Amino acid sequence: MAARIARSFSSGARLSVFRSFSSGGPAIPPLTYYSAWFCPFAQRCTLALEHHGVPYEWEEALGWTVRPSSVGEDGRADEAAYHWKSPALLAANPSGMVPTLVEPATGRVVKESLVTIEYVDDYARAHGSRAPSLMPAEPAERARARELASEINAQACSPYYSVLCKQERDDQLAAFDGLVGTLRAFGDALRDGRKFRLGDELSIADLALLPWAYRFYVFEHYRGESFAIPRAGALEHYHAWLERCLQIPAVRRTCPDKARYLEHIAKYATNTARSKVANAVRRGVQAHEYDDEKD
Ligand SMILES: N[C@@H](CCC(=O)N[C@@H](CS)C(=O)NCC(=O)O)C(=O)O
């Protein structure tokens, strides 16, 4: 079993990862990486870093503090969990979101998880990575891959937060049904025997979904058996894809411990988390529609 990167760090802790996945490969300059062990968005970036063996210095840049919530905010919680954010993260990215990458040599900042995948891919390849690219080579296929990743984000990742943060069963079920429909379409695309969403290599389309696919187990625990991802039809292909991805050592290293994560996500399941995505869902929009001012 590969060592885990996404351990439960204490806030502000730093970890240097200088292992090169493509051992014997070129020396790639390390990146500063503001991350959080529990964050599936950040896991997208970690997956790209690990795929290419880009060295990085990880700072655990988010934590949680529990304090009284404003009275009557959702009619349930007297106390809520708010993010602590590291000063270095806020200096690099004032919206205080992880993942955030900084190039130490230039001070340039890269943020937004899907963008970080493409950036890490370009950065690694510019420095001679021998790992396969996470993006297709042909321009129209690259455009389609971006579009697909963004659709997966809106239609499979965002509903995850609605299933958890919504407290009415009908709302939870509606979000879950939409999510399963998206996974079915994902599985359908794998029917031709391809290993990954775009073909026989891992790509941005897989990395967009993988951190949430790994986390869907939390639904059964917090919402019951009817929230298990079904296995029939095209979904068999989706489950086989997930198993295949989890066989890859560079993927396994990025996955947080399931028991610790289950404990962490209780804040969302009880609607006491006050993160931007949770606030967006409480405001009645999708998680990806969070607004830096309102949420
Ligand atoms: N659109 C962002 C979302 C990232 C995100 O929501 N990250 C969470 C941690 S899982 C975060 O930084 N939360 C801080 C906050 O809510 O203020 C991305 O794709 O990178």
Explained architecture:
The protein is of the alpha/beta class. It has helices spanning 40-52, 87-92, 113-126, 139-165, 169-188, 204-215, 217-223, 234-246, 249-252, 258-269, 276-283; strands at residues 14-17, 31-35, 56-60, 62-68, 79-85, 100-102, 109-111, 273-274. It has one domain (14-289): Up-down Bundle (Glutathione S-transferase Yfyf (Class Pi), Chain A, domain 2). The protein is built from eleven helices and eight strands. The protein has a five-stranded mixed beta sheet. Strands 4-5-8 form a three-stranded mixed beta sheet. The longest helix has 27 residues, at 139-165. The structure holds glutathione. Glutathione binds at residues 36, 39, 41, 62, 83, 96-99, 112-113, 275-277.
Rg from Cα: 19 Å
CATH architecture: Up-down Bundle
Strand percentage lies at 5-15%
Q: In CATH, what is the class?
A: Mainly Alpha
Which term fits the overall shape? globular
Task: Give the overall average pLDDT.
Answer: 92
Strand order of the largest sheet: 1-3-2-6-7
Ligand inventory reads: glutathione
Summarize the structure.
By secondary structure, the protein is α/β, with parallel strands linked by helices. Helix content is 46%, strand content 12%.
Helix-strand blueprint:
Elements: E1 14-17, E2 31-35, H1 40-52, E3 56-60, E4 62-68, E5 79-85, H2 87-92, E6 100-102, E7 109-111, H3 113-126, H4 139-165, H5 169-188, H6 204-215, H7 217-223, H8 234-246, H9 249-252, H10 258-269, E8 273-274, H11 276-283
Parallel strand pairs: 2-3, 5-8
Antiparallel strand pairs: 1-3, 2-6, 4-5, 6-7
Helix pairs in contact: 1-3, 1-6, 4-5, 4-6, 4-11, 5-8, 7-10
Glutathione is lined by residues 36, 39, 41, 62, 83, 96-99, 112-113, 275-277.
